[in-house]
Structure formats: structure tokens, C-alpha cells
Amino acid sequence: MRVLIVRRKGVKVGEVVGTQAQAQAVAAQAQPERRQKLAYLEVARVVCIFAVVVAHATDLAASRSGPTGLTVFLSTAIRFVVPAFFMISGYLIGAKHRDPAYRLDARRFWSSRALTLVLPFVVWNVIYFWMFTLAYGGSIRGPWALFNLLTGEMHLYFIFVLLQLLALYTLLARWFGPRLLAWCLALAAVSSVTFYAVSDYLLWTAGPDAHAFEWHWGKLCLAWAVFFVWGVWLGYRPQAMEWLRRHRWWVLLAAVVLFVPYWLEMRYQVAHLGALARDYFLASGLPYQFAGACALLGVLAGWEATWRRHAAGRAVVAWGALMFGVYVAHMAVAHYLDPLWQRVWPSAPQICEIALLAGTAFFATLALAWLAGSRYLWPVGVVLFGGRTGRRR
To answer: Backbone phi, then psi, for 221, in 5-degree steps?
Structure first.
């Protein structure tokens, strides 16, 4: 037996008394989590994207019937999924920084994002701009039309916000460390809490605004910062993610409890304002959205071995690579499927209406994203989905 220095890429990561094989085992444990160890994140993507499709199917149903008990409940319950997206994005960045030798190459980082994020963002913005503005006789000269085209039509705001957060990360990456991360997390928490509180205050003092506040000011990263930075924290500090996994059922119980005041405020909006002017940015919504996203990651992480053991689990994990394509394209598919289902089953119960539209839109878009990676259609996959088609070329 002897004392061996454990190094990784030339950087000391620890010491061990024992054989060379034992030293190699310690070095392996010091490595950042690799993609094969993150099956639960791929499953989380699938769950969140499907929930987003359900949310938009619910919105389409509510646009015909007005808000009902079912649509208000679903709209409230599903609102943790976008925060979960930001946590996952942050987690993957934080996990890279576990490697003491890791340094961000900004040029390479943004060259990749230009293809995988910016190009699909621009292309789908134009598609949705044509579908929902020009095709319905809307004006392209107004300031809000240009604003939406630049910052994200409809659900594409997520990409615009993510690009802002990634830009801030790029500026701060050279000083990345636990102290800076703790300060960023504190500032992000203040930013998000303040934004939600101001939004709630304006709702009950200035009155409903037909979602103008959420659809315009909600595209600033100030509102979403705490979710992203918390994800970075979870990725950088594996003990934090392990704590979340071990206490997942308590976190889930907290999310269920926190759901109640959020749901009651959503119902109060309908009763006293006649509409839902705020979906996300309510003071009662932030705690639930945070706890719900954490509970999702914790519960799925606790079942990590299950996703690998069963063929069905491995299939769902494989779908994770296609979820970006489903996210950007599903509204276009749902736009054409919705009137079709209305003709096929015009008197369908609302729950069936939502389930049919969400299910068919999800799987049709999933198939589209998969086909876009085929031998002859891969250029389409690059343009529409940034090459995220689940196939390597």
C-alpha cells in the first residue's frame, strides 16, 4: 500500500492510500456526471414537453368555452414545467464545472448554440409570425408585431429567455466558483421574488391586461433567473441533488401543499376578473413552481435505475433527444389538428377534447422530429430543429 495522488487531466482531485486500481476508482468518482448517468433528465424533458402540449391544448379548449374548473386546475398544475426546463439547462452547465480543469470556450459554446438554438428560434419565429399574424390579417407594422418577432412568438419566449441567461453565464464563467454561484443564487432569488410580487400587485391594482404583462415583461430573464441558477447549483454540487433525491417525497408533499394557494388565486381571478390575466407570475405561484420543478427532478432521479432496467424506460429516455423539436413545432401541428378534432367529435367532453388534441399533437410532432433526422431529410432537421433529431451524422 502507498499514498497515490489522483489526477484528472493533470489536475489533482484527491489522494488515496491503496493500489493503482483504487486510485483509478477515486478518479472516476471525481468526474462530472456524463450523459449516460443522466437518464432521469431525459425523462424529465419528455414529461415537461408533454405537459406543455397539454397546457396548450387546455388553452385552446378554454378559448372556446371560457375558463372552467377543469381548465383552471390543469393550467395551474402544469405551471412548474417551464421552471423545470430552466433548472435542467442550468444543471447541465453546473455539472461541467465539477471538473476542476473545465474552462468555458465562449467561441465554441456560442457556435454550437447558434445552430442548436438561434437558427431554430429564427426559423420558427417566422413560421409562427406567418401563421398567427399574417395569415389572419394582422399588421406587421405595429411595434408589438416586431417585438414578438424578435423576442419569440408564443411559447418561443423560452428560447429568448434562455439565450439571455446563457449570455450572462458566458460573461461570468471565467470567475465561476462556489462563492460567485452563491451570490448569483441570492441575487436571482431576489430578482424572481420581486418580479412575481410586482406582477401580482399590478394585477390587483391595475386590473386585467389580457396577458400583456406576462407576454411582454415575462420575456425578461429577471423573472426566471432563480430557476436557472438553482439548476446550476444542483449540477455543480452533487450533494445538493442527492439531498433532493433522498427527500423527494417530502419535496413532493410541499409542492402539493403549495399548489393550493396558487390554485385558489387562479380561481379568484376567474371569479372576480372574469379571466386569467396571470398564469405564471403570481406571488402564490412562485413557491409552487419552484417546489414542483424540484419534486419532478428528485422523483425521477430516485428512479434512475428503473429507466435503464426496462425497455420502455430506455425508449422514453431516447425520446429526450427529440423533445426540442416537439417543443418548437407542436403549436403548429396542434393548430391544424384542433379544427379536425372539432369536426370529428364536436360534442366531446372537455377532458377528452384536451386529451385527444394533446396526445395526437405530441406524437405527431415526435414523429416529425424523428423523420427530420433521416438520411434524406437531415438538412430539414438542421434548419427546423438545430440537428436535435436523436441521430448522429
So the answer is: -70, -15
Q: Are 126 and 189 in contact (CB under 8 A)?
A: no
pTM of the model: 0.88
State the Cα torsion 120-122-124-125 to the nearest 10°.
150
What b/e readout covers 119-157, taking b as 16+ CB neighbours within 10 angstroms?
bbbeebbebbbebbbeeeeeeeeeeebeebbebbbbbbb
HSE-up (13 A, CA, CB side) for residue 296: 27
Which uninterrupted H or E stretch holds 8?
A: strand 2-8
The enclosing H or E element of 6 equals strand 2-8
Give the C-alpha separation, 88 to 186, whole Å: 19
Fill in the amino acid letter for 136.
Answer: Y
Average pLDDT across each block of 10 residues of the chain; the chain has 393 residues. List them in order: 49 50 47 61 95 94 89 95 96 94 93 94 91 65 74 91 97 94 97 96 89 90 97 95 96 98 95 88 96 97 88 91 94 93 91 95 95 88 85 57
Alpha helices in 130-224 (DSSP H): 143-151, 157-172, 178-206, 212-216
- Rounded CA-CA distance 16/288 in Å is 44
Chain centroid to Cα 107, Å, comes to: 24
**CA neighbours closer than 13 Å in the CB half-sphere of residue 285:** 27
Could you tell me the three cell numbers for 141?
Answer: 407594422
Note the residue count of the chain.
393
How far is Cα 100 from Cα 96, in angstroms, rounded to an integer? 9
Q: What are the residues facing 4 on neighbouring strands?
A: 16
The DSSP result for 62-111, as a single string, is HHHH---HHHHHHHHHGGGHHHHHHHHHHHHHHHHTTSTT----HHHHHH
In terms of Cβ atoms closer than 10 Å to its own Cβ (0-12, 13-18, 19+), residue 286 is: buried
Task: Report the DSSP pairing between strands 2-8 and 11-18.
Answer: antiparallel
Domain regions of the chain by residue span: 1-31, 36-385
Nearest alpha carbon to residue 361 among 57, 43, 142, 21: 57
Cell matching residue 311: 425497455
Question: What is the DSSP code (8-state) at residue 117?
Answer: I
